[in-house]
Design brief:
mainly beta, 5-stranded antiparallel sheet, Neuraminidase, 5-stranded mixed sheet, disordered N terminus, 1 helix
Length: 288
């Protein structure tokens, strides 16, 4: 299996970290970083504070994996981890969770409460990006023999802006340059692209499908044609107010997806859901 994609864009992550002042960070609570659903009822959640590496924030480096069976309304911790969980996914017959140091945990889809470590995979969840570009998280484990992975790439950031590109496999399907430069697909240069999730396309088929880009400082973008055209959702994720943490859109041919948003990049977070490819949304759960 070839896994698709890892890591927040380094410079964008630095900008987000700077935005999270020590005064706004909790001292003990673990916050959600990533979410994945097998169906509308059953899902997994990864938590932790990546910022705990900064001693000034006075919090302990740790994380957890939780599960839900009621569509995300309630969550139950099934494993405590020694480091933050920064990425999760359900792929084929297994669930996957990635810690911030590259260690991967897995569980059988039939037994989501029983997890075990499988060693370090520092490139897990890392997207394909050309030389000179940084890869955002790809929210999906993808077998590239049977599916075309999604990747979002970023260039050198400016003041709140950066060049961005979306790839399906090695094909660039949308892009934007810095302010005033050429673009294709409807993505603005404003905001820092953090990750992408989308419905896989069978190998050899015409590219199609629903996908989501989440950003820090920017907004959410959705596509309904495999990444050729993107639509901004500033009323769902308000620029400079709602920071994108994760999205899961890969398990549903009917346009169902879940997104994690944080208020100002802090501890107040909410899980939202769409069942019509991003046209309308509802709040499923809030963390305060």
């Amino acid at each position: 299996m070839v896994v698709a994609a890892v890591g927040l864009i380094a410079l964008a992550a630095a900008a987000e970290t700077q935005a999270r002042s020590s005064a706004s960070l909790p001292r003990s609570a673990l916050v959600p970083n990533a979410v994945a659903f097998i169906d509308r009822k059953h899902g997994i959640l990864g938590t932790g504070w990546e910022g705990c590496a900064n001693k000034a924030w006075h919090c302990r480096l740790q994380g957890s994996i939780s599960v839900t069976s009621d569509g995300g309304k309630t969550w139950h911790v099934v494993l405590h981890t020694r480091r933050p969980v920064v990425a999760v996914d359900s792929f084929h017959d297994g669930d996957y969770a990635l810690l911030d140091d590259g260690q991967t945990f897995t569980a059988a889809a039939a037994e989501p409460r029983r997890w075990h470590g499988t060693g370090k995979h520092p490139r897990a969840f890392e997207g394909y990006c050309p030389k000179g570009w940084s890869a955002g998280y790809t929210a999906d484990f993808v077998d590239t023999n049977i599916a075309t992975p999604w990747s979002v790439c970023a260039g050198q950031p400016g003041v709140g802006n950066q060049a961005k590109a979306v790839f399906r496999g090695t094909k660039r399907v949308a892009y934007t340059a810095m302010t005033g430069g050429p673009s294709r697909g409807g993505i603005s240069s404003y905001g820092y692209a953090a990750g992408i999730s989308g419905v896989p396309s069978p190998r050899g088929s015409r590219i199609s499908g629903f996908g989501i880009i989440w950003e820090t400082r920017g907004t959410l973008y959705v596509t309904r044609d495999g990444g050729q055209h993107w639509h901004a959702l500033p009323k769902v994720a308000r620029p400079e107010v709602d920071f994108g943490d994760w999205a899961d859109a890969d398990a549903y041919p009917n346009g169902t997806a879940f997104v994690l948003l944080s208020h100002g990049g802090g501890e107040q977070r909410r899980l939202i859901e769409t069942t019509n490819a991003g046209r309308t949304w509802r709040v499923v759960h809030r963390w305060r």
